[in-house]
Specification:
Keywords: Cell membrane, Membrane, Transmembrane, Transmembrane helix. With about 525 residues, the chain is α+β, with helices and mostly antiparallel strands. The chain contains 15 helices and 8 strands. Strands 1, 2, 3, 4, 5, 6, 7 and 8 form an 8-stranded mixed β-sheet that branches. Helix 2 packs antiparallel against helix 4, helix 5 (about 145-170) packs parallel to helix 8 and helix 9 crosses helix 10.
């Protein structure tokens, strides 16, 4: 199932990405259905109480026919039509901003937050009128029916109002989500407690009061038999169980839906799918605070991952991981590594003959080739020095054959540059030996680097390699230290590199392949 289908805690409410018209039709359908279901429950409750729960005095008297079969049905139909029409008018008026697909203003948000209460108020008025009207109608013909009708219709109305509120609040979750996302969500700090109290009061307290009243009046009425008393108490108990269960279920759904949304989103975070987590906040109670807090936490995790990614891009993944796992400090340690130095040939001419944008685009493709080759060899691109690149194999993460990996990467770079970046060529030098690898700089600002003779030697070899950029050059120490990769290199000359006093045995790659 698409995760978006439960953005509001229920598949009935659709997805947050759903079109405005489709969502409006869905909300209106749910609102109308909610009012119909709540009033139907109230009607069934009223009939059950009148006919069976409190049978005496009876409503089925000959002179009450016009009330039972004309006044009551007509009022029920009229009340439902009036309630539906007024409810639709209220919803359309209060949610004009949503209908027109625009962001709500502060005034719009206040009206949207009052919409559930307006709809509930309409239902309250209709049932209050019914309570007064039916009590008077039946009471005029039989005064003994006054307490019975007042209790029966009043209790049914209270149940309808409670159920209506919970269902309306459920149907308007998408609207509440838009209001909250616009920054107008006013948190009801005791919302969960209020829902629980209403559920208890309507589902338990009022029916229990009804049972007490039945017992009380039965005790003082001579015509009330034990069977009538038993039936009345039983019906009220069944009603208490039924309405209590229904309201408890509705209340628990309103409580568990936000928690379930957080739990589902948490599983995505645990599986590493942080980018997919965007929890819709639709609850205006303390549970909404939970959703907001979770989104804040995920936002912090995303920012942390973004910073981690940027850090890795700037200093290299291995250096970043090492820095994150332990407290970084200045200084370093001796490491035996292989060093690859790649330097562009004719960078001045390149810059003079092209626009700066073109030069940057070419250099980016040049660097991309080098980074890919170095990472495949488990090396670290340590520095981009203008149009030159320094790569290290064997630090900060040790590898089995740093010299062989560096020599292989050098040949791969030469091959790929010829194919992928024909606009540019470079001299490539490889050296091997002991360096000091660590953090260099000040405590406020430092970088990971390597310092030692192999770095200088690789830079000088890259200058020498510019004579034939198709063939990288390497020191004899690098080739001697390499494994099977050494067979791809041949001895070329012994020379004293610029700035050095000792001769360097220079090897060149045997063959530069025509393709990748």
């Amino acid at each position: 199932m698409d995760r978006g289908s439960r953005d509001y805690g229920s598949i009935l409410l659709g997805s947050a990405s759903e079109g405005g018209f489709k969502q409006r039709v869905r909300i209106q359908t749910l609102l109308t259905s909610s009012l119909l279901i709540a009033n139907l429950i109230g009607a069934i409750l009223a009939i059950a109480l009148s006919a069976v729960g409190i049978p005496q005095p009876s409503l089925f008297q000959s002179d009450l026919w016009w009330v039972n079969y004309i006044a009551v049905p007509v009022y029920v139909v009229v009340a439902f039509v009036v309630g539906t029409v007024l409810g639709t008018v209220v919803v359309v008026r209060d949610l004009q901003w949503a209908i027109r697909d625009r962001a709500p203003t502060a005034k719009d948000a206040r009206r949207a937050q009052r919409a559930p209460w307006r709809l509930v108020f309409i239902q309250s008025v209709l049932w209050a009128v019914a309570t007064v009207m039916f009590t008077i109608m039946y009471g005029v013909l039989d005064p003994n029916l006054i307490p019975k009708m007042f209790f029966v219709v009043g209790l049914s109305g209270v149940v309808v109002v409670a159920i209506s509120y919970l269902l309306i609040e459920f149907a308007l979750r998408p609207v509440a989500a838009e209001v909250i996302s616009a920054g107008y969500g006013r948190r009801k700090r005791s919302g969960v407690r209020s829902r629980s109290i209403v559920s208890w009061m309507v589902g338990s307290a009022i029916p229990i009061i009804g049972i007490l009243l039945v017992v009380f009046f039965g005790a003082f009425r001579d015509d009330t038999s034990k069977l009538d008393l038993f039936v009345g108490v039983t019906v009220l108990a069944v009603i208490a169980l039924s309405t209590g269960l229904l309201l408890t279920v509705l209340t628990s759904i309103s409580v568990t839906a936000p928690i379930r949304s957080v739990r589902t989103a948490m599983k995505r975070v645990q599986s590493g799918r942080i980018s997919e987590v965007d929890l819709v906040v639709y609850d205006g109670t303390e549970l909404g605070d939970l959703q907001v807090g979770f989104n804040s936490m995920v936002g912090g995790l995303r920012e942390r991952e973004r910073m981690r990614d940027l850090f890795g891009r700037h200093v290299g993944r291995d250096v970043a991981e090492a820095a994150l796992q332990q407290d970084p400090e200045l200084g370093g340690a001796e490491r035996t590594v292989a060093v690859v130095f790649v330097d562009v040939i004719g960078s001045t001419t390149l810059a003079a003959g092209r626009s700066p944008t073109e030069v940057v685009e070419i250099l980016n493709r040049f660097f991309a080739v080098i980074v890919a080759a170095v990472e495949r060899g488990e090396g670290l691109v340590n520095k981009f020095e203008g149009d030159a690149v320094l790569a290290i194999f064997g630090a900060p993460i040790a590898i089995d054959d740093p010299a062989g990996a560096a020599l292989g990467a050098a040949r791969e770079i030469a091959d790929c540059l010829a194919d992928d970046v024909p606009d540019i060529s470079a001299g490539i030098g490889v050296s091997y030996g002991t360096v000091v690898a660590g953090n260099v700089g000040a405590i406020e600002r430092f970088e990971y680097t390597v310092i030692g003779d192999p770095v200088n030697e690789s830079a000088r070899l890259s200058e020498l390699a510019k004579r034939d950029p198709r063939r990288p050059l390497a020191s004899g120490r690098a080739v001697d230290a390499a494994g099977g990769e050494s067979t791809s290199w041949e001895r070329q000359e012994d020379t004293t590199l610029r700035g050095r006093t000792e001769e360097t045995v220079v090897y060149a790659a045997r063959v530069v392949s025509a393709g990748r």
